[in-house]
Design a protein that fits this description.
45% helix; oxidoreductase; disulfide bond; EC 1.11.1.24; seven-stranded mixed sheet; Thioredoxin_ResA/DsbE_sf; alpha/beta; 17% strand; Thioredoxin_CS
């Protein structure tokens, strides 16, 4: 009888040791998983934000402007889409020449692209001139008003027209310091991802 009781006790002790070992391994694995998750979250929160720039391949500087209709538009709202940012003014002859082609590109949408036409409003005689220009040319893409030239300064615009083709990841794919025709615009839009 003593041998049976001793055998039961030894079996129970071995069983308890195995159970304890398995339980501690499981708790250690759960603790390690929690620690890894916390580390990943901390890394995400402290990860440096990528700096923007104006060269091809750089993350395009974000901006926020109002449309002629008073709607707020941010470049970052278009992440996931191809964007054609064009800086222009009504008094600029090459801008006048390129606008009809921009409208055709926008209407055709051979390859989906959003056009954001940033008017250098600070250089205009009046905002009414801009509205008349938009109506005369039948422009249907968003016209953004850079009233204090902050965005033009951020993009270092020295002369107009100046355009930036921004791919769906928010990176600059092409820079055009001058007017483009429809064929060239279409070609550069097709190249973007």
């Amino acid at each position: 009888m003593k041998k049976i009781i001793l055998g039961v006790i030894i079996t129970a002790m071995v069983g308890w040791a195995v159970y304890d070992l398995l339980l501690s391994d499981r708790e250690s694995a759960e603790e390690a998983e929690i620690a890894n998750t916390e580390t990943e979250l901390a890394d995400t929160e402290t990860a440096p934000v990528e700096a923007s720039g104006l060269a091809v391949g750089d993350l395009a500087p974000d901006f926020e402007l109002m449309t002629m209709d008073g709607e707020t538009v941010r470049l970052s709202d278009y992440r996931g889409q191809r964007v054609f940012v064009n800086f222009w003014a009504t008094w600029c002859p090459p801008c006048r020449a390129e606008m009809p082609d921009m409208q055709k590109l926008y209407e055709q949408q051979e390859v989906p692209v959003e056009i954001l036409a940033v008017n250098l409003t600070a250089s205009e005689k009046s905002e009414e001139n801009v509205a008349e220009f938009v109506e005369d040319f039948g422009l249907s893409f968003p016209i953004l008003m850079d009233t204090n030239s902050e965005t033009a300064t951020k993009y270092k615009v020295k002369a107009v027209p100046a355009s930036y083709m921004i791919d769906s990841t928010g990176r600059i794919a092409f820079v055009a310091p001058g007017a483009m025709n429809l064929e060239f615009m279409s070609q550069e839009v097709r190249k973007m991802k």
